[in-house]
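> forwarded from #structure-qc
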């Protein structure tokens, strides 16, 4: 396991707390649940060049759950794609760092997302293009569990299997909560693993906060002619005890005493 990915995740959690506080923006709990996944990807897995964001041989990463964009902005700043001071302008008027992730004027972001259910479709197109052009890069996309309600995703799941996109990796942030309800009460996904397998995918279940497990499964090449799905079991709000599994923090912004409490808790981990 890379200790650097753990250090990176601690920095990102601190950044996103400050970003959502300063910008008076929401989705902090949804952001916190993917921080470990993002950290392992950018520290150990993805091929990229921070000074050349359009490097032809780079891996592509699409954040489908665009409302968690602050985590990607934070890791890109830490990795030198742009000045870290830009994070202070998150969600400010005129800022490029919008609440939902945008590729407009933000180096390192492949595609803007916000309306759920679009990221996998785009990633499939990228992976299919790479196959047609005989390119060796890989395509990764991170979905929320809630957006797996969307029919566009299941069309893409069929598409990827049919076209044998073994250069495509889907990671699902399976924190079991969405907007104002649990995933199971909104639209039951289970048996989730069996559904992906039935659609022709290679499937792995991991602890989405265990860096060793994440790194191990992401480093392995896909089975031949099969796209890979990693179901990462996560905790919404991970890292701030009073936000964990508390769906109030899907839309709530960390302010006042709650911000100070969260800041104090995260500082102990840095």
């Amino acid at each position: 396991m890379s200790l650097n990915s753990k250090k990176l995740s601690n920095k990102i959690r601190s950044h996103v707390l400050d970003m959502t506080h300063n910008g008076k923006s929401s989705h902090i709990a949804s952001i916190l649940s993917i921080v470990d996944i993002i950290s392992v990807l950018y520290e150990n897995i993805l091929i990229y060049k921070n000074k050349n964001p359009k490097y032809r041989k780079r891996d592509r990463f699409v954040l489908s759950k665009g409302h968690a964009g602050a985590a990607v902005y934070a890791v890109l700043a830490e990795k030198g794609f742009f000045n870290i001071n830009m994070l202070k302008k998150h969600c400010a008027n005129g800022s490029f760092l919008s609440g939902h992730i945008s590729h407009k004027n933000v180096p390192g972001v492949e595609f803007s997302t916000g309306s759920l259910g679009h990221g996998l479709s785009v990633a499939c197109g990228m992976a299919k293009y790479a196959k047609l052009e005989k390119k060796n890069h890989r395509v990764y996309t991170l979905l929320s569990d809630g957006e797996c309600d969307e029919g566009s995703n299941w069309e893409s799941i069929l598409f990827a299997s049919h076209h044998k996109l073994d250069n495509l990796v889907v990671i699902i942030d399976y924190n079991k909560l969405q907007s104002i309800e649990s995933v199971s009460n909104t639209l039951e996904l289970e048996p989730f693993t069996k559904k992906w397998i039935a659609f022709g995918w290679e499937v792995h279940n991991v602890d989405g906060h265990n860096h060793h497990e994440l790194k191990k499964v992401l480093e392995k090449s896909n089975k031949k002619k099969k796209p890979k799905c990693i179901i990462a079991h996560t905790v919404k709000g991970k890292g701030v005890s009073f936000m964990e599994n508390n769906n109030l923090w899907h839309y709530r912004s960390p302010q006042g005493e709650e911000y100070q409490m969260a800041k104090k808790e995260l500082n102990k981990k840095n």
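QC bot note: The chain has a mean pLDDT of 96. The domain at 3-267 is CATH 3.40.50.970 (Rossmann fold).
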